[in-house]
Amino acid sequence: MSRKIILASIAAVVMAIGPAPASAAGTPSPKDAEAYIIWPPDGAVISGGKLWVRMGLRNMGVCPKGVELPNVGHHHLLIDTELSPDGQIPLDRNHVHFGAGETEARIELPPGKHTLQLLMGDHNHEPHDPPVYSKKISITVP
Q1: Which of 61, 62, 68, 118 fits a disulfide with 123 by CB distance 3.0 to 4.6 angstroms?
Q2: pTM of the model
Q3: Are 78 and 89 in contact (CB under 8 A)?
Q4: Which residues pair with 37 in a beta bridge?
């Protein structure tokens, strides 16, 4: 069979079945990966509202956004919000991106009760598959 006929046959099959579906899943994460908030502790009362958030990660590595390696990602801090059901990480005041690979950051919160949660993002700023996120904690700023 000539090369032209083979290529035409392949093209016909691709046209018939359509293009491969885009993967809805993010970069694979290790089964035992775990993100966690080192500080502040759950239930902390933070006077003045200025605090350091220290971020931890087990069984994965932290790297800047854009680095495409297995089992690595960068932190996102979710403040007073839920994990997005559509698998996206918005860019707004409730989703703080740490694309330089930071593992601690100083934030300021207004008086009131607040929730904090970490979510790891891959090189494309998308959650891993399965998503790697911390337990949600609550803090109060008097």
Answers
A1: 68
A2: 0.81
A3: no
A4: 55
All domains of the chain in start order, with CATH: 26-141 (2.60.40.10)
pLDDT at 139 over 50: yes
For residues 34-61, give the mean pLDDT.
97
Taking residue 79's Cβ as centre, other Cβ atoms within 10 Å add up to 16
The pLDDT tens digits of the residues spanning 62-99 come to 999 999 999 999 999 999 999 988 778 998 999 999 99
User: DSSP characters for 2-21?
Assistant: -HHHHHHHHHHHHHHH-SPP
How many CB atoms sit inside 10 A of residue 98's CB?
20
Q: What does the alpha-carbon distance between residue 67 and residue 60 come to, in Å, rounded to a whole number?
A: 14
